[in-house]
Specification:
Length: 495
């Protein structure tokens, strides 16, 4: 009879599987040496942490769970494993930046967190290295689609566990979890390929094209140029249109993509999130355009339209790209306020975007409407709470409304605490408006900045790191992981 692996033996055994995968992330950038052999001196920056991680991962796997029957993870142990995977991935993938000698430990962790969280805030300073630039894009690639989804697509359903849901993949495209993960990954890679080809046709170099295609679809915002997207070669108008399309695709639920690909357009236009996004666009695009067209720095109407639409798409999809030839520090407060609101709302559920998600806000708006209708109707009349989502109508239970409203409240509260901490540690260099804007971009994984990140001290960087990490995991898994550890320490039974 095989021995049974359970509890922390099982958790660290599964962690070993993830470590093997994480080691591959650190090896992949070395592919760039084929095209840029003159940069071969950086090979050990990646090979050293990659090799060490691979050995530790294999050791954990073969020592703890190989050829053992595996029990189910206990209550909240899936969230604990998820948090462990992301923390370890960030720390390991920060090592190449540290070994470069050009970034401090804090800056390296900040860069790795920003990449995996698909935020785009950066302290990067190695623009001469194609290998490191591509490495940042790889972090976006894997962070956007999710570490658990990648593992699930390569292995089997039993390895997927409940981590697939905990990581934010709330909708399965197919009944089989593994097939769903592979289909999502296939769509993701296909879009990147098509985006890269489109950008090359537009006149962008192949290297810039693939990096920007990954960053736009992952809604990450990292650029291969220090001056951002507008520094790239090619037709600027066409580049921005292609990037906008990729950002919108990245900010949309992957189940909606499946409906589009299979021609089920009625299901797309009936979807609650799609309609909510349409309403938001009708309201906020004109407002964004107006903020650029008026004030001391008023732009011509054509530029106002271009800036307004692009900034709206970048903010609502939490991508962080900008087509403005200056930093956001020069924007008026009205634009900053609109960007903050869009960051809080965020992209679609089950997308690569951050924020508190459009579905939760749509439910909150529906809840308000249903309550107003109930108060103005006879008590003898019953109105069903129905919505159309994921290709079908279903009744919304009270617990779903409570979860949506509760998460929005938790999200906004965390935003307030983070902004306060940012201002507190700034030593007077950051006011509350700048703090709210910067931290909202960190927790929502957006990456637009008013210059706070570029001038931040180590304490401020760690505040932003925590914000990016909490935002990527949607806060609750971190709470449940801490709760599980606390209960295990005090030996309370919660399974």
């Amino acid at each position: 009879m095989k021995k049974l692996a359970s509890g922390y033996r099982l958790i660290f055994g599964y962690l070993g599987i993830f470590l093997v995968f994480i080691s591959l992330i650190t090896f992949l950038p070395l592919v760039m040496l084929i095209f840029y052999p003159n940069e071969s001196g950086v090979w050990w920056n990646f090979a050293l942490p990659g090799g060490a991680t691979l050995l530790v991962g294999l050791l954990l796997y073969f020592t703890l769970i190989f050829k053992r029957d595996r029990a189910r993870l206990g209550r909240h142990q899936d969230q604990l494993l998820l948090v462990q995977v992301w923390v370890v991935a960030i720390l390991i993938c920060a090592v190449p930046f540290v070994l470069s000698g050009k970034m401090t430990f804090t800056e390296s962790v900040f860069e790795a967190t920003s990449g995996f969280a698909t935020t785009g805030l950066t302290r990067f300073n190695m623009w001469e290295s194609h290998v490191f630039i591509f490495y940042r894009s790889l972090l976006l690639f894997f962070g956007g689609v999710g570490l658990v989804l990648i593992i699930t697509s390569a292995l089997s359903d039993r390895y997927g566990l409940r981590l697939y849901i905990a990581e934010g993949h709330n909708d399965k495209l197919m009944p089989n979890l593994t097939k769903s993960a592979r289909l999502i990954l296939g769509i993701y890679v296909l879009y990147i390929f098509l985006g890269t080809i489109a950008l090359i046709i537009s006149g962008m170099s192949a290297f810039d094209a693939i990096n920007h295609s990954i960053a736009a679809l992952a809604t990450g915002g990292f650029s291969s140029r220090p001056g951002g997207l507008i520094e790239c070669a090619g037709n600027q108008a066409m580049n921005q249109i292609i990037i906008s399309i990729l950002m919108l695709l990245g900010g949309t639920n992957f189940l909606i993509h499946l409906f589009i690909i299979t021609g089920k357009f009625k299901r797309v236009f009936r979807d609650l999130e799609v309609r909510f996004f349409g309403v938001l666009s009708l309201i906020f695009i004109p407002l964004f355009v107006i903020t650029f067209a008026v004030g001391d720095n008023a732009q011509p109407f054509g530029l106002s339209v271009s800036y307004g639409i692009f900034t709206y798409i970048s903010a609502i999809t939490t991508s962080g790209f900008t087509n403005i030839p200056a930093t956001f520090a020069g924007l008026n407060h009205a634009t900053m306020m609109l960007v903050t609101i869009m960051c809080i709302i965020g992209g679609g559920m089950g997308s690569t975007a951050g924020g508190s998600k459009q579905y939760r806000f749509a439910l909150a708006c529906k809840s308000l409407y249903w309550n107003v209708r109930r108060m103005n109707s006879s008590k003898n009349i019953y109105y069903p709470h129905k919505i159309y989502r994921c290709g079908q109508y279903h009744d919304v239970e009270h617990y779903e409304l409570a979860e949506a409203n509760g998460f929005i409240l938790l999200y906004v509260t965390t935003l307030g605490v983070g902004a306060f901490a940012l201002v507190l540690f700034s030593g007077g260099s950051c006011d509350i408006g700048q703090g709210l804007f910067e931290f909202s971009n960190a927790i929502s994984s957006t990456g637009l900045s008013v210059g706070v990140t570029a001038n931040a001290n180590p304490a401020m960087l760690w505040v932003l790191i925590l914000g990016m990490f909490a935002g990527r995991l949607e806060i609750l898994p971190i709470y449940y992981a801490i709760y599980r550890i606390g209960n295990d320490i005090f030996r309370k039974e919660i399974d």
